[in-house]
């Protein structure tokens, strides 16, 4: 028997076969038996102790099937409720509605959201705003009927500045965009009031004088009152240009009021401006000469060709390549150019190229009318 240090266990090899066999093989097998016996002794612990300190990888296969082990529940503890493991949460979840969120955002200072049902104070404010909008609308219509386009312009701009909401004036609905253009075309610059008199005069004479002054300041010739100034034409064109940029065509809204609605009146104003410029270049009929008529027609022809070039650029891309109003208008512009060329050719008989140019413009206009028919538009038969 061999004694080893106090820190190591005593072990005696009683196997005669191992002793007689010699070598280190028997000692090695004895060491394996000692380790196996030591492991069997450790495996006799209770299930509660094993579940408390044994890792998952050292638990036997029978132990792994124990429901307590699988659920991680101690055997001595009380069983959970019937709803385990899908028991309810400790805190009840509060549901937040859209109305509550709107009220909370509207109650901030300053408010981040506003809707008409926040409070009675806001409802009264909206009612007052609605009354002011109704008054402005009445002033607008009365001013248009009386021809007071300056006051109508002020009322129209006030309605546009109301903003979005139930009281706002939508410029695209109800043809309101046309009202704005008409105001810009007919508006006259404001006249200065007559100067005040320093000395008192007789009441009757002062009344008569003031009446005469008012009649003189407000009276205008019929032709001048109904005419349109070139400055007003420029303002109306800028107005249509801004609407075209602000409301472009969107494929998702094919029936909306957009740039397609504003292009025809814009080109109509450009045509009217060209005729006015030609009339300014041409003096009255009693004093006009062939040279004056030719210069006016040349100005009108240059303006007409500029309009045709811009329309060609626009009609080269969708959705305007099948837009019937612009296709028909482009054909009419082509006939207008042809008439100007042929009219100028009658005064210059030595130029043989002008008749051919006029015929070419008419053929080009027929092509535009044919495209208009294919797009579903109506074209007069005599064209």
Automatic annotation (TrEMBL):
<dbReference type="GO" id="GO:0001181">
    <property type="term" value="F:RNA polymerase I general transcription initiation factor activity"/>
</dbReference>
<dbReference type="GO" id="GO:0070860">
    <property type="term" value="C:RNA polymerase I core factor complex"/>
</dbReference>
<protein>
    <submittedName>
        <fullName>Uncharacterized protein</fullName>
    </submittedName>
</protein>
<feature type="compositionally biased region" description="Basic residues">
    <location>
        <begin position="186"/>
        <end position="200"/>
    </location>
</feature>
<dbReference type="GO" id="GO:0017025">
    <property type="term" value="F:TBP-class protein binding"/>
</dbReference>
<dbReference type="Pfam" id="PF04090">
    <property type="entry name" value="Rrn11"/>
</dbReference>
<feature type="region of interest" description="Disordered">
    <location>
        <begin position="1"/>
        <end position="98"/>
    </location>
</feature>
<dbReference type="InterPro" id="IPR007224">
    <property type="entry name" value="TIF_Rrn11"/>
</dbReference>
<dbReference type="GO" id="GO:0042790">
    <property type="term" value="P:nucleolar large rRNA transcription by RNA polymerase I"/>
</dbReference>
<feature type="compositionally biased region" description="Polar residues">
    <location>
        <begin position="41"/>
        <end position="52"/>
    </location>
</feature>
<feature type="region of interest" description="Disordered">
    <location>
        <begin position="185"/>
        <end position="225"/>
    </location>
</feature>
<feature type="compositionally biased region" description="Polar residues">
    <location>
        <begin position="216"/>
        <end position="225"/>
    </location>
</feature>
<dbReference type="GO" id="GO:0001164">
    <property type="term" value="F:RNA polymerase I core promoter sequence-specific DNA binding"/>
</dbReference>
<dbReference type="InterPro" id="IPR053029">
    <property type="entry name" value="RNA_pol_I-specific_init_factor"/>
</dbReference>
